[in-house]
Amino acid sequence: MSNNPAAKRTVARPRAARYPGVRVTSVARTLRWAADRWPFVEEEVAGLRPLVRPGAVCLDIGAEYGLYTWTLSALAGPRGAVHSFEPLPGPARWLSTTAALLGCGNVTVHRTALGERSHQGTMSLPRRRLLPVHGRAYLTEGATGPGPNTEFAVSRPVPTQVRTVDELCDRLRLRKVDFIKADVEGAEAAVLAGARNTLLRDRPALLLEIEDRHLEKYRTKAAELVDRLTGLDYAMYRRQRGGWSRVDEVTEQCRNYLFSVVPPRRG
Question: Is 198 a residue whose pLDDT tops 70?
């Protein structure tokens, strides 16, 4: 057994599946079909195919229950890799168990948050009618308060390790990262700050949730986040009419935006 504390917080990659790719491919197809029909599946799930080629290395930051992880796993294929980051214990266990059941031998689950620097942090996990609302949990370090989470009467602290993308890429010996999705309830700027070397080295495509209501609790605005990325020669796109359309500003009608240094392929 490893004495490395970080290793204990990483759920081991499942062994190669007996049904290589069949189950996860079926789930991914269902999710792409559902993206335009079911409200709990984001429409951007259907737009990942032009962004992720076979063999790609992908990071799913704020993976929760894996709606992006399973699609990325199917697209990256057996030669690719998906690293899913989820700091909350319940969803992290779900991800690990489901990855094994689906035969996702290319998925590794990491129970850690990602931010601007490595430290021991705390997630605030809200509850509604005594049930945890995992999708609205946020990292308290750097936050001025709960922001829109004031709608929840109860929340509880969950200790978590915080790492940076750059640190983990070095530790995992990832030579190239092709795609990063981040949905971290307003802490996206901190994730990008901790990924600066990776962004400059690999120029991965980025799919980010950007909402001022969450960003403001970290003293950040959507326009500032966009300016930071355009300063690194990224262009911004949103999913419209079955494709990715170039846009110049964040609006309330859309919360997920693609940033890429090259125009997305059609398909």
Answer: yes
